[in-house]
């Protein structure tokens, strides 16, 4: 189903065509394209009023690096390591893509 952005893009294209016809003194065709452009603008407005903003496009799936073998398991939910210093659990810096790099971690702790 076309979304609000699609309707607005179509309206813009149709308005450009209407302008081209107007410059060529083809007033009937310019009026038809202008009316169609107006229709798409109204559709976009009505859709936004009834449904709201378009859903964001789906995110790309994250590509997992190879499992390092040192953390709890190969699944993303198991890529955690424990710390001997404070008995805490932390994302494995070797293979968890959401773990902070040592440089990022030092910036977070220093601020």
Q: Helices, strands, pairings?
A:
Elements: H1 4-23, H2 27-51, E1 80-82, E2 89-91, H3 102-110
Antiparallel strand pairs: 1-2
Average predicted confidence as pLDDT:
82
Strand content: 5-15%
Q: Radius of gyration from the CA trace?
A: 27 Å
Give the SSE string. HHEEH
Number of helices: 3
Q: Which structural class should the secondary elements be placed in? A: mainly alpha
Give a written overview of the molecule.
This protein is mainly α. It folds into two domains: 4-51; 76-110, no CATH class. It has helices at residues 4-23, 27-51, 102-110; strands spanning 80-82, 89-91. Strands 1-2 form a two-stranded antiparallel sheet. A hairpin with a 6-residue loop joins strand 1 and strand 2. Helix 1 packs antiparallel against helix 2 (27-51). The protein is rod-shaped, with a radius of gyration of 27 Å. The mean pLDDT is 82.
Looking at this protein, list some descriptive labels.
single chain, 111 residues, mainly alpha, 2 domains, two-stranded antiparallel sheet, 2 strands
Short summary:
It contains three helices and two strands; from the N terminus they run ααββα. A two-stranded antiparallel ribbon has the order 1-2.
